Amino acid sequence: MTADATLAPPAPGALRIGPHTVWPPVVLAPMAGITNAPFRTLCREFSGGKGLFVSEMITTRALVERNEKTMQLIHFDASETPRSIQLYGVDPATVGKAVRMIVDEDLADHIDLNFGCPVPKVTRKGGGSALPYKRPLLRALLREAVAAAGDLPVTIKMRKGIDDDHLTYLDAGRIAVEEGVSAVALHGRTAAQHYGGTADWEAIARLKEHVPEIPVLGNGDIWSAADAERMMRETGCDGVVVGRGCLGRPWLFRDLAALGSGEAPYAPAFGEVAAVMRRHAELLGRWLGDEARGVIDFRKHVSWYTKGFAVGSELRRALATASSLAELDEQLALIDPAQPWPAHADGPRGRTAAGGRVVLPDGWLEDPYECAALSADAESETSGG
Fold first, then answer.
1. Please, what is the Cα angle at 325 between 319 and 330, to 5 degrees?
2. Which is nearest to 168 in space by CA: 197, 195, 212, 136?
3. Which end of the chain is more exposed for a tag (fewer CB within 10 A), N or C?
4. Per-residue pLDDT tens for 63-81?
């Protein structure tokens, strides 16, 4: 990806991740069950191909064992460049094998490692946002991944820590620099917060000051292009990672691609939204090889796309239970296409619940430098977080 000649990047320059130039400096966050090839296609089309679009989280064990579902998840459209895969793993040897497989079989151009997932099925096995607490394990895993990647850039995405009493992001950032990681992304919440409360952008600024050697990307509470610009201005971060803000709004990347231009945010009427919904469901059907499966998979997106519009509960329910494109078309036709974009729909969307106690392996917090024994099933054979 090359810098857009019509939009000069601000000092100190466009975001660089290894050999890849990303301008505007915007990254689609990996989201399990969401950022598959069809959704990435929509986001990329709205952005005009500008930005970096990362796959769903892929479990390294599942990749090495060539799990059928996982092999489908790593499929990239021919127009995707650079191809970006996010990996989840807790065993350095298995992570190394997965990275070597990606390199040897030319499966991607960029590898991101997940140290941010807060869900119990991941943290109870010492993975995701739990892993950086074990500094030696984090270092070993990064060292193995970077060595196996060769010329492919390796980045990481993480949270502030397990909770406010067990913050890890500054140590993790320093370890990442020392082990040759190309960039770090920080979600300004702890694992205990999940997606509740307000993201701590000051932590992003502190990390940027702590690791000036590599790009730092900020994540958390970016609901609009204006939020992205404000985060970069207030924290000094080199780019932003956008997750929940684009749920049901892949056109957010149209606004993000115009960062700094002063353009008004895109505000589609419902007729335009309906066309995107239909295309999304159709792309899922092609990707899954079955129209009905595609429409069924699309159901979870209905509430996000229709948020704020005047859609009755019965009609909303019918949309969320459709099982064919014809059914979806029939229900969408019942909604006034001239409805303007509801202004209050620009705010938070997706999961907003706060967390609580983080589920961890027994004895995990006793010593950050002593790695508690990980169970044999610490790397699930199934991808997604």
1. 55
2. 136
3. N
4. 999 999 999 999 898 889 9
